[in-house]
Amino acid sequence: MTMRELDRLKTIQAVVDGNLKSGRAAERLGLTDRQIRRLVNRVREQGPAGMASRRCARPSNNRVPAELTKHALDIIRERYADFGPTLACEKLREVHGLKLSKETIRKLMMEAGLWIPRRLRSSTIYQPRNRRHCVGELIQIDGSDHAWFEDRAPACTLLVYIDDATSRLMHLHFTYSESTFSYFEATRRYIELHGKPQAFYSDQYSVFRVNRKQPQGGSGHTQFGRALYELNIESICANSSQAKGRVERANLTLQDRLVKELRLQGISTMEAANAYVPCFIADYNRRFAKPPRNDWDTHRPLREDEDLESIFTHREKRKVSHVLTLQYDKTIYLIGDTKNNRKLIGQYIDVYEYVDGRIELQASGTCLPYTTYDRLPEVSQGAIVENKRLGHVLQIAQLVQAERDSRRSQSAPARTHRGLQSPTKKPEPGKKRQRALGARDMEKAIRKTVLAT
After folding, report:
1. Tens digit of pLDDT for each residue in 194-240?
2. Which residues of 222-233 are buried (b: 16+ CB within 10 A; e: fewer)?
3. pTM of the prediction?
4. Which CATH superfamily is domain 139-288 in?
5. Suppose 20 and one of 14, 40, 90, 224 were both cysteines; which one would form an S-S bond, judging by CB atoms 3.0 to 4.6 Å apart?
């Protein structure tokens, strides 16, 4: 007998003893007067046992036939033993025509031991990885896109370099977004300050790793990976965010402390923030850095033949056409017509793009003089942009759109009421050409931002 039936028994017994009228009992229990009389007769004939439901211990009238459940379970054991209940239910319905609910399939699989509920599964154990022994043995790097200046300036990205052995901040660099040239600039500054570490530990972002299964063209290495290879620095990509937990936890600390410090210092620009960063790093390391197991510093000095300005460049090979031209970044480069340059027709030469935007054409280590011809002055509407760099590209696009709207409003004739056109002043000679050139330069900046990976 359930607790609900025991509560009803007290009220019905009061009716049987004559201490309560059936109408008032019906109001208390939310039943009809006829039901109350039926329960009273059962209690008088059978005693308290008459209050128990007659459906107790009897199978439900809506139960699934035993033959159907046995047939479904046999199919699951034979073909879908490693399936989840939802997918197994879909396959039984689509392939075998067995229309059973997902919860029924779940119950059958649990009883048969084919499915373990998530709450009963043993939790996965992630054992911590020991720190490295020496400073510079492994440097974790990551970019954190955040509103570092709060509402005083647009959001930007902070590139964080942290030592795995000591949790010491090695370098911080504010930039617009995580791009190849941003990491070129920050890593060059890191090497100039500390030297060459043994390895950089990063995520699987496209700056560090070619994410295609079969890269088309090139050597299968990214530009950043090629630069580290020339410097004899190992590049390691983490399998998950938890694997590089030191830099991830440092990002959370920086998003709290550094934001407040920039507010107290009244800093609202990336240039001023990069100038303040060394003071913050010294204070941070004094508070949170750990002593290394070994005092040996594994950073290595640069060799005499290692030129950082040349190494940290975007390099691609281009074929010289029969008219001594090549195309790079939607721009045609015209090589000077000389006897030696004519020998390069049909051969591949190197195109070097520096961090500051300079372009060099090199053949066998010799720089070639050239002139440019911009064939496509318009922005590509289908340009591919990395997700981490979308915010910066949209900011530049907003500036270009504002410039275009300004040109349209200046070129459109002013209108008065009733459709009459007011007299307009003709633009001075050369003004229209000057505005077009300004827009072209801004659109070229967008292309370089989109394609600089």
Report:
1. 999 999 999 888 888 887 766 555 556 789 999 999 999 999 888 87
2. bbbbbbbeebeb
3. 0.61
4. Ribonuclease H-like superfamily/Ribonuclease H (3.30.420.10)
5. 14
